[in-house]
Amino acid sequence: MQYDVAIVGASFAGLAVASKLGGNSLLIDRKEIGSHQASACGTLVKTMEAVGCENSILQTFDEVALHVGDAEITIPVPDRFCTIDYEKFCKTFFKRSSASFVKANALGVKNNEIITADKGNFKAKILVDCSGWSAVLAKAIDRDYVKNDMMSFGIETEVPFEDDKLRFFLDNGIIGNGAAWLFPAGKKSRFGVGSYKGETRLVENLKALTDKYGVRIGKIHGGYFCYSLKRPCVGNVFVAGCAAGQTLPLSGEGIRRSIIFGLKCGEVLQQVLDGKLPAEEGRKIYEDFALRYRTHYQYLLKLQESLPKIAPWQIKLAARLLSFKPIGTYSFREYEKI
Ligand SMILES: Cc1cc2nc3c(=O)[nH]c(=O)nc-3n(C[C@H](O)[C@H](O)[C@H](O)COP(=O)(O)OP(=O)(O)OC[C@H]3O[C@@H](n4cnc5c(N)ncnc54)[C@H](O)[C@@H]3O)c2cc1C
To answer: Is the shortest distance between the CB of 11 and ligand 1 below 6 Å?
Structure first.
């Protein structure tokens, strides 16, 4: 059977692509849909509303607290943030698409076929790689597509603990050249640490954070997030989400970005399938859309790289400025444009 579109990866980006497609599209993931949460799942309420997945919201926030050393600075945010139930989100979003799902481990691509380790090959007119940092299809075409030195790595644990703010920590006592976070999600909270250098041995760092709150580390999950924005079309494959490096440097925010790029990718592909756009033009429209944010990514990357060299008093000063509503609102709106 030939599908119109076959997508590897049924998470934020892949589900967003599928939600814009009619006809017979296929989602392939090595895990059951929504069964493998890798992230703290903090995002904007309006992102969830835009895709009709408000039912997955666990808690909402009007403020973000930035901890720099011992100082805690509260920054009001003009748009509410939320934490979500990943499984509920994925299942709800999937139901809103007409795609079918196959649980299979994709190995790569040959012509217009996705090769899997366990379920044979899947042929489609258009292939999309939403497989996260490993970019399994794009990498099969271009071996250098995945930039191992341009990835952060994070781990977290979700344990019983209630709080009312999203908290970020820039504190060398917890982690140097990285950040930590505490994201409440109802009766539980997600405590996490991330290394901008991509260091993977982070359990001691996580312990430094959980000790601060007197909680014990539970089951740990996590992974890489790729922040080197890349060309989103490789050979005949469209790439969206973390696979295309669309997670933001510095903040590590990737859910909103993966959904935005996934929706755009799906929209363009449907127009190509409907014959409203020649394939080459569709490809160019998606590429231009994805790469027009390049300077914003570069700016955030510069900030991320400079962070270890910035004195704590300078970070505190910047955070205090952001805590003034007009400055905070302006800065947030600029950030949100990305
Ligand atoms: C610890 C941590 C915390 C984070 N917290 C946040 C946060 O709070 N807010 C935020 O906005 N961002 C956060 N991020 C970043 C965010 O998780 C990513 O940007 C986002 O998940 C990217 O979505 P995606 O759909 O592109 O890829 P993923 O969510 O990584 O999904 C990739 C999918 O592809 C599947 N897959 C991979 N390889 C194969 C294969 N070979 N065959 C078949 N299927 C395959 C995987 O099973 C998975 O379902 C966090 C990241 C980490 C690591």
So the answer is: yes
